Every structure is written in C-alpha cells, then in structure tokens.
Here is the input.
Amino acid sequence: MYAQPVNGKFGQYGGKYIPETLMQAVEELEVAYEEAKQDPVFHERFASLLREYVGRETPLYYASNLSRRLGTNVYLKREDLNHTGAHKINNTIGQALLAKRMGKQKVVAETGAGQHGVATATVCALLDLECTIFMGEVDVERQALNVFRMELLGAKVVPVKSGSRTLKDAVNEALRYWVKHVDDTHYVMGSVLGPHPFPQMVRDFQSVIGTETRRQILEQTGRLPDAVVACVGGGSNAMGMFYPFLNDESVALYGVEAAGSGIETDKHAATLTKGEVGVLHGSLMYVLQDAAGQIEEAHSISAGLDYPGVGPEHSFLKDIERVRYAAVTDDEALDACLALSRQEGIIPALESSHALAYAETLAQTMGEEEILVICLSGRGDKDVHTIREKVATR
Amino acid sequence: MKLEIAIRQREGAAFVPYIMAGDGGLDQLIPTIVRLEEMGATAIELGIPFSDPVADGPVIEAAGRRALSDGVTLEKVLNHLIEGKGQFNVPIVLMTYLNPVFRYGIQPFFDRAAACGVSGVIIPDLPFEEGTRLFDGINRHDVAVVQLVTLTSNRKRTEEMLKKAEGFVYAVTLKGTTGKADRFPEELLDHLRGLVEQSPVPVLAGFGVHRAEQVQTLGTVCDGVVVGSFIVEALHENRMEEVGALIHSAKHVPV
Here is the structure.
C-alpha cells in the first residue's frame, strides 16, 4: 500500500521550510484540515458545491476520432468543463471552505496565467471572502483579460515587480503578504506545493478527478485503464488524477512536463527531468537551480507549467518509479492542441496539450484493445492569443 | 561560544549590523567588516544573496539581486572570509536561505564555515523542528545555529527553541519582512522581556530597526539590536557617518 506522509514528508520531500512567523498558521491549518477531513458536514458542503456550482462530475469522454488515429482507446477526463474552465476550482472551493471554518475572512493567492487567480476570486465572491491576488507584472501584461476577470469578481490584483516578474515571484510576494497578515488571512496555495499540509491537502481536494475517472472507466469498460497521462507544472491536476490509482499496479502513470524549447536548451520547465533536489517556497523537492543553489527561471509556452519546482509527492513518486515523467516541447504541445481542436472539436489548454502530445508517443507502444486516459485539465480559450501568434510565426 | 561572549562583553547595547555580501563588489567585503568593527559593531550578520528571499523586504532583496548579478556565491564569500582572516576579530554570523546551504552540502558547509572562522548561522526558512532533523548527526563544530523567535511563535515552541538556543536569540520585532518600520506592535516590549527572562543566551531584537530611539528602547529591554535594511541602504548610498552614528547610539544604552 502507498504510504501517507510522515512528519509532513513524502520520503525526504516536502516539510515546512518557512519563516518562523508562518509556523503557527501552518500548524493551525494542519489541525483544521485534519478536523475537517473527519467532518461529514464539511464533506457534504464540499461535494454539493462541486456538484451544483462547479458542475461535477465531469464526463469521461471516449474520443473516437483520436482513438482511431492513435490506434488505441483514448478517454479524456473533461476537467475543461468545470466552472471557470479548469481543475483549479476543485482546490479553491475546498480551501475557501476551510478558511471560513478557521474564521479567516481574507485570502491571498498567487497566480501565473491567472487560472488559479480566477478560480480563487470566483470562490471568494461566492463565499464572501476578501481576496488579494499576486501576479507577476509580465503575466499581468500577457494575461490582461484574466486580470480583468479577477477584478470583475471583486478581487484585488497586485502586480509583482520583483525578480523575473512571473509566477515564482508572485509566490514570493504572496508569502511575504501572508507573513504580514497571518492573523486574519488564509493563503490559498494553487498547486501541490508549499509547506505541509498544502501538498497533501491540495492533492486531496483534487483527487475527485481520479476518483471519478476510476469509477467512470469501470462503468464504461468494466476494467481499469492501462495508462493514465497528465501534465505536470506544480502538479495538482496530475496528483489529483494519479492518487486514486497509485495502488492499482496494472495502471501505468505518466506525468508530462514542459520541455519548452527543448531540455537540451536552458529554456524549459522540466523540473523532474532536469532539476535537482532543493528547497523552494516551503518544500524540499526537485527544482531548477544553478551550482550555487540559486533558483533558475522556467520557460514554457504554457504559463501554467512555467514554474521551477514540482510538488514533493511527485518528487517522491519519481524516485520510487511509481510514476514515469517525460517532457514535451512547446512545438509538440502546440501540434497536439491543434490536432485535438480539429479532430474532436475541443480546444484544450496549452498545459493539457502537453499530456495530449505525450499520449501520441505513448500510443505507439499500446495495442488497439488497450485503454489510455488523458487528463484534459483545462480549456484553451485563455490561450487563443498565444496559439494564434505561434501559428502565425511558424 | 565566541558569538555569545562578544555579545555579553559589549559596552551598552549590542549592535549587529547586517550587510549583503558582495553588494558593491566582493573586494569591499573585508574592508567593510573592518570598518564596522572599528565603528563598534558587536558582531556582523553577513547575508548570502538568494534568488527568492521570502523573509526579506525590498531593500535587502535589491541588494541581493545586485550581488547575484555580480556572480556572488556562498563559496566565493567563504573564500573571501578565509583570505581576510586576521584582519578583523568581530564575530561573523552568516544569514543564508536554506537552498544554497543544501546545495553546498550540510556537513561540507559547517566544515568550511568553521574553517573560515564563522561563529554562527541564521537560516530564515529553516524552522526549529526542520533544523533539528536536518542537523541530526552533523558535526557543526562551534558554529551556532541562531534561532528566530517571532511574535506568532506559541509558548510551547518558544520554550523548546529557547532551551536549545545557541549564540543569541533573534527576536523578530514585527509580523512582516525585513525593512524599516516606524512603529512596532504594542505587545513587543512585553514579548522581549519574556524572552530575556527565559533565554539562556542573549536576546537581540531585529527587523524594522533604523532609528536611534528604537535602538535605545529595544536595547534597554533586551541585549541589543540587529539592523539590516538601514545599513544596507546607507552602505549602498555611501552614508557611512549615519551608520557610525546609529552604532554609536547603542553604546550609551544603560545596561
């Protein structure tokens, strides 16, 4: 059986590497989460919001055109059909309910492309929480529409001018803000990152993806899939998808990172493939770093994968070889995005397109009776600008 | 022990200036240390630049970025300290985020730091519990691991931290990052008195301190102060006389 973390650690990974001022808040969160997990009222509230507000469960869709082309049975888990267009809201609903339960009226969050920011702002509007979102200045410019969405939902968006002015720096600034406002503010971490209990808690909230998928595939085909593929940036959709399958040894699990311009270049976000063990944002995990231990910038066509670290549980699953991790380039992801749009009438997010691209490679090793599940973590509407630019310059 | 002794033997209140290693060029490191010792610094907190300094405010982050763009690394700073040995006697306390140390290797770091004459180390993203686990079985020689205690540390953890305190206790004066504060929380002075009462080692207050009257107030209640952003800014803008004046203000605090 797959083990739960001990002392907040998955093997050596995870932990609480944070400023002392935050320790009390993180320990309170740990206690509050453990209590909430045992509370049927909390579960019912979470489940009913997922059902009636988010629109779950999401379909597990047999992609017949894609299946025919790839020569194997391909199923898509349609997280793109969630309210706000991606899996992110599964987590923000859980954490916002927890913030209310802890008596906190304010939340802070970081966002890269803006998906987690929009999902957080959405839930804050619903549950009447005051919401502050930190976003790198570069991303604010690239994703002006998402900034407007967040503001429309009543959130305050603060552009971050320090460092590389992208996601990593937005996390730094959100952590600093949390240190200053820790008494009345909850930090809604957007992925399976950060100090314990965040990686475990975010995974638990996201594991609705894998739990539904497992039941749906059994209902539709009578058996478990042979392979499951998901994209990995910080790794929350993948962790949520993989977790309910970890003890099913016959199911091969594949995490797909962003190779950017190529893993042989210095412009990629392939943390598990090319990174080394280090500490960032509260957690021991694989990170992109130089020889002196300075964190390096990540690069990907997809802003959601553009992060130089990866969740501690993924780091552990790589080491024990329960999950295999691969990387696909910007170009491969873009091709897969265009292919799915044309062949299935679904425009996938560029993040999810990485999983789709790897599935093309993987399918070559699979038979026509076999079953391949892909986590379609989000829809591509937010990416149409980028896609148009990239296609035009090809 | 050198660190604790230096603080105990001070005149007035202890004054520990923070400087960012390599800000203004690594060749300035030893001359700056010598100069601060002449001005009366009790010990020197020497910051190692890091790409993601989450405990620091804008002034120290900017200084770190200047140092990083000059290619400053932990290794280079330690090499300079070895070369400067004998030119100063003031204790050096390294302030570094965990990842550069982790990357260097925990045991090699303590071996090398001790060989370079480093008296203590402050790791702001390494809470007590993680530190205890990480340093288990490590020979730290005589390098003190200085613990930060904050206004949010609960009583049980504070007791544990004080029991194991080494060098001095770094009492964080506010909920926030490093910088220049105009006001401290109301409960601060009582908090400091409580720490002084319980702590087996001296207690220094830091974060936000930048004015002589703050040095006086805090230095009267506990053993002294750590001053970061003010010093970093003054050194960067070449206002040495202001640094001298603030250090001097600590000497007249009644003990």
Chain A has 16 helices and 14 strands. Chain A touches chain B at residues 7, 15-25, 162-163, 168-169, 172, 175-176, 179-183, 276-282, 284, 287, 289, 291-296 (CB under 8 Å).
